[in-house]
From TrEMBL:
The keyword Glycoprotein does not apply. SMART domains: IG. It comes from Labrus bergylta. The lineage of its organism: Eukaryota, Metazoa, Chordata, Craniata, Vertebrata. This is Ig-like domain-containing protein. It is found in: Cytoplasm.
């Protein structure tokens, strides 16, 4: 800057730094049901938040470790929205997720539920003669368990 004085005939020069502080990047309120998610294993999952500035930079963390984009995980920024998508969730994806800026953080809690399905096989037993007593036999189901029958009852062991 160049300064002039009424009293002196000399010019005075002054160097100064001008700092402009950008407003902080904060998150919009998120409903509690979106902060605590429970999904079934292998389902797609999206965690989403909205920042106060479209140019706001965020980092995603899972259990304190910074997340990176991969074949299974997509991280996107579209306008003020920030999204983390897990393509096919697994039990290992359960945990605490954080969307973090320099000025604010938002926490998500994710639970992955494993649903075990059993394939029921129907057995056809032919007998030339059926006695009045119940017959009983055991058989293996795909190496995962045993089916025991007694009369009309079938039990997965």
């Amino acid at each position: 800057a160049e300064l002039f004085s009424r009293y002196f005939q000399a010019k005075t020069y002054c160097l100064c730094d001008i700092f402009s502080a950008a407003p902080p990047v904060t998150f919009s309120e998120i409903p509690e049901e979106d902060l605590f998610k429970s999904v079934v294993e292998q389902e797609e999952l999206v965690l989403s938040c909205e920042v106060s500035r479209a140019d706001g930079v965020v980092q995603w963390y899972k259990d304190g470790i910074e997340m990176q984009q991969s074949n299974k995980i997509t991280i996107k920024a579209e306008g003020p929205y920030r999204r983390l998508k897990i393509i096919s969730s697994g039990v290992e994806d359960s945990g605490e997720y954080v969307c973090d800026t320099a000025d604010d953080s938002i926490f998500f809690h994710l639970t992955i539920t494993v649903i075990k399905t059993y394939l029921c096989l129907f057995f056809l037993v032919r007998a030339a003669y059926i006695s009045s007593s119940c017959c009983s036999f055991n058989t293996s189901v795909g190496g995962k368990g045993t089916v025991r029958t007694s009369g009309c009852c079938w039990h997965l062991l």
